[in-house]
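Hey, quick one: can you model this chain's 3D structure?
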Amino acid sequence: MSTPSVPFTVMEPPAEDEIEAARRFFAGPCDFLKGVVALDGLPDADRPEVCFAGRSNVGKSSLINALTGRKGIARASNTPGRTQEINYFALGARGYLVDLPGYGFAEAPIAKVERWQALLRAYLAGRVTLARAFVLIDARHGIKKVDHEIMELLDRSAVSFQCVLTKADKPRGGGLGHVIESVRTDLARHPAAYPEIIVTSSETGDGIPLLRSAIARLMPE
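Sure thing. Here's the predicted structure for all 221 residues.
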């Protein structure tokens, strides 16, 4: 008996006009709005938003900088766990980009880590304008147990999420291909997973136009 194919593919580039429209969108207004430390501090739910979730030091801030073409709009750090708030960035009036606290290891007191992990879970489970969560996975390591825990929360909350591989320039030889195959298999256990994987590198720019296009589709003019 043949083994059924895994229904997850690497996202193919969209049409050139769509890529250009997404580039223009991200070249427009993009401003840091606020950092949120409690749910009552969230901005009004008046437009679509997408969020970036991932293990500490997976490259969320670097990815936001690459997406927007603004080198310092999101703080990047080599210290895991630096982002301890839900950081909102306004894309004009069309939508929000949301940088979530890194989950997993963090160099911070345990009580503080627990508080912002609770905030992360509450946000993912209850934000009505959240159009999609982008779950970032380090292309050197693939999906870990803590990633599955966040994905299971998104499954239970019926929040669509799409896997984005970061640091795709780092694996050598056939390493990237092996990680992609393992990610495809792992995602098959998550009903809320979007069926296309986006492979990116903030350093080389690979995959950034695809991710811009995916976000722009979720924020109609």
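One thing worth noting: The chain has a mean pLDDT of 88.
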